[in-house]
Amino acid sequence: MFIYLNALFVGLLLLSNILAVKLFQIGEFILPGAAIVYVVTYLLTDVIGEVYGKNTARKTVQAGFITQLLAVFFIFIVVHLPAAPAFGLQSEFEQILGGSFRVIAASLLSYIASQHLDVSIFHRLRASHGEKKLWIRNNVSTMTSQLIDTSLFITIAFWGIVPLRVLLGMIVTQYIFKLIIAIIDTPFAYLLVKWARKLEAK
């Protein structure tokens, strides 16, 4: 089961980097497409940590970081390869996958800081609760780490580009949206943990 959870984590992580280019709006919320995908990675590290332990969860986070670095490296190479005459979408391709160094750096730094914090908080609470109160450690660890992730990413990516009022508004709206997703995914944490333990017991 672990290999599937790990693969899902890395896959969603890479997918969120691609979907971040698309902005969508719900009411007053304007968010990147990654917002609905990336928050699920915190659910997966919580499930992995709950079933397989803190060290395994940390290794999953590290694997995600290395995979992102490799993805950036290969995307950079492919973007800068000379386009074939028949390929008329080079500029669009660069816009979607190229990204800026600042945004990429913001993504990597916020990822490594917040994901490690998520694992640390989750297992500190687990040391106190044992296997009980999964919903508390799942929500508290995700809500705290998402605040760090959102604040770091938006500050690094957009500081000096947008007014401070707009920057703070971006942080607040994205964080609220991520909180809602984190609360909604709590039942899935219980289901995935139960399923993983059942499969590992066979």
Poorly predicted ranges: none
Order of helices and strands: HEEHHHHHHH
Give Rg in angstroms: 18 Å
CATH architecture: Orthogonal Bundle
Q: What can you see in these coordinates?
A:
With 202 residues, this protein is mainly α. The chain has one domain (2-201): Arp2/3 complex 21 kDa subunit ARPC3 (Orthogonal Bundle). 80% of the residues lie in helices and 4% in strands. It has 8 helices and 2 strands, in the order H-E-E-H-H-H-H-H-H-H. The protein has helices spanning 2-19, 35-52, 54-80, 90-97, 101-129, 134-158, 164-184, 186-201, and strands spanning 23-26, 29-32. A two-stranded antiparallel ribbon has the order 1-2. Strand 1 (23-26) and strand 2 form a beta hairpin. Helix 5 (101-129) packs antiparallel against helix 6 (134-158). The mean pLDDT is 86. One of its GO terms (cellular component) is plasma membrane. Belongs to the vitamin uptake transporter (VUT/ECF) (TC 2.A.88) family. Q precursor transporter subfamily. It is a multi-pass membrane protein. Keywords: Cell membrane, Membrane, Transmembrane, Transmembrane helix, Transport. This is Probable queuosine precursor transporter.
Sum this structure up briefly.
This is Probable queuosine precursor transporter. This protein has about 200 residues and is mainly alpha-helical. The protein has helices spanning about 1-20, 35-50, 55-80, 90-95, 100-130, 135-160, 165-185, 185-200, and strands at about 25, 30.
Could you outline the blueprint of secondary structure elements for this entry?
Layout: H1 2-19, E1 23-26, E2 29-32, H2 35-52, H3 54-80, H4 90-97, H5 101-129, H6 134-158, H7 164-184, H8 186-201
Antiparallel strand pairs: 1-2
